[in-house]
Please model this.
Amino acid sequence: MHLIPEFPASKLPHVGTTIFSVMSQLAQEEGAINLGQGFPGFPIDEHLISLVNKAMSAGYNQYAPMPGWPALREAIALKMKRLWDMDINPNAEITITAGGSQAIFTAIGALIQPGDEVILFAPAYDCYAPAIELNGGVVKWVELEYPHWNIPWDKLESAYSSKTKLVMINTPHNPTGKVWSADEMSKMANWILEKQLFLISDEVYEHITFDDRPHTSMALFKEIRQQTMLVYSFGKTFHATGWKMGYAIGPENWMREFRKQHQFNVFTCHTPTQVAFAEYMKDTTIYDAISPMYQAKRNLIMSALQNPVFEAVLTEGTYFQLLKWKGVSELSDVELAKKWTIENKITLIPISVFFPSQIDMRLFRLCFAKEDNDLIEAAARLNQIQ
Ligand code: GLN
Model:
């Protein structure tokens, strides 16, 4: 008799399918306008598509070197020099990844040992905590202060212990849209230095900020360079989230361990896309149009949204806007988001899922990276909600 072994206990017992997949599937089933999962709803640059086609036709169809296409890593090093005066060795300090999430997962896996504590700020993007837990790390949560999402420095201090190994930050911040100021970044850099910690700075929305609020990168703080991993995303910047490509920049020793894991997990990323990005990035003006384009979209939907039951909460960057719902219901925010998808044909993301204890602050995230006519129709549907 053939006995099938019993599948062991889950390594992530509290984790289900991500809210993004759940809400996107429901939106599709219900024919709703999907302002839930964050992805652009408009075409990408034809020139970028033609560069990928050109690379395929020219025969760039085999494995790229494991850390990434050399010309692309050089283009990234040049960009970091231009923006932040950072001197990077592209051979040792940059790895091209299958999106920002894989960069984050691998950076954590390379560093975290069982029992290590990691400080996360809540609300936090949902891929951080599981990656820490899978490596035996322990998450210590610090809640950002609503509604401006300021860092509570005293609480940060109390979250620290001799076991703290890593702090993870994200600016521009998903899901709140907060952009950390240069002062906040500098204070954090000093704190990391003083406490001798490692830092992962998730900056995937680096090119999307509003109202002249500049993005400040941790790349600016040379004194913590040897303990900082920076994470970026081509998908967010060039509107091609489905291409799943990003990169990590970090010190040689951390990157060496990072690549040991990357090589046996992903090995290397899609070659023609990397060849195309290397060429595309030669035009340094492409970044200038991104923030104004998104700011116009944010303003468009927010001026069409005329419903006193929703109050806008901040948004200095990213393509997300938080709304506070002031209606009355017994339903949780997750249930409300599902109800609105089914009844009003409009999908938002409930924010409780980004808090460790699922605090329901009646906050919902909308993604405004959509065609203008969809934004106007979405606002009309949101205006019907009570
Ligand atoms: N980053 C996207 C968001 O915040 C989601 C990506 C995903 O679904 N994994 O909506």
Q: What stands out?
A: Residues 33 and 346 are 5 Å apart (CA to CA). Residues 18, 20, 37-38, 174 surround glutamine (CB under 6 Å). The chain has 14 helices and 13 strands. The longest strand covers residues 164-170.
